[in-house]
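[User] I have long wanted to understand how a fold can be written as tokens. Those tokens are not coordinates but codes from a learned vocabulary of shapes. Could you go through the record with me and say what the backbone is doing? Thank you; the sequence and its tokens follow:
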Amino acid sequence: MNITYYGHACLGIQIDDINLVVDPFISGNPLDAAKAVDIDAIKADYILITHAHGDHIADTERIADNNPEVVIVSNAEIAGHYAAKGYQTHPMNHGGSWQFDFGKVKYTPAIHSSSFPDGSYGGQPGGFVIESKNKNVYIAGDTSLTMDMKLIPMFTALDLAVLPIGSNFTMDIDEAVVASDFVKCDKVLGYHFDTFGYIEIDQEEAKRKFFEKGKDLMLLTIGESLTL
């Protein structure tokens, strides 16, 4: 499994020859490094969307139009929104799982808000647990720390937890450390930080706090990848 960080909360995940894009938001990212990403070159067989906010869906249709066989996976309301526009979708809801060709996906609870940029209802926000044949990943989405996270390791042993760390709109560094305890995963990829002023962090302090708890916090630069 190869994971590429496209900035903010956007990830590219390659599992064998299948490509997933999570929360496509690149063109609107104000950081210079995001402008170097060639959005039209991104391959996608599936687009996974945690919630409907503009900083998570902005490039969904552009990527989908470039990949006409793509399937958009999200909650029922978001899936319905894109289905009405003619895109292939797979609707889910909290607690539900589905076996796709790349692995099993479970839609998990998140505590946040969710509306489309025009203010229309985007359903309840969520996250995803992806179980592939070799590695298991939890993508929390935008969320506070929640006790529901303790349920995840009861069913899935994780190899990586992707957690928001920017505070203000989501949990902060200290809560992300606790979240990694809750999901029983000491290998963490931080995201949803430093995109704009509200969520700027001290990266070295963040890494230190994880290190002091015997954990590994990875903060990738835009365009950088890791392999599990």
About this structure: The mean pLDDT is 98. The two ends are 5 Å apart (CA to CA). Residues 112 and 182 are 18 Å apart (CA to CA). The chain has seven helices and 14 strands.
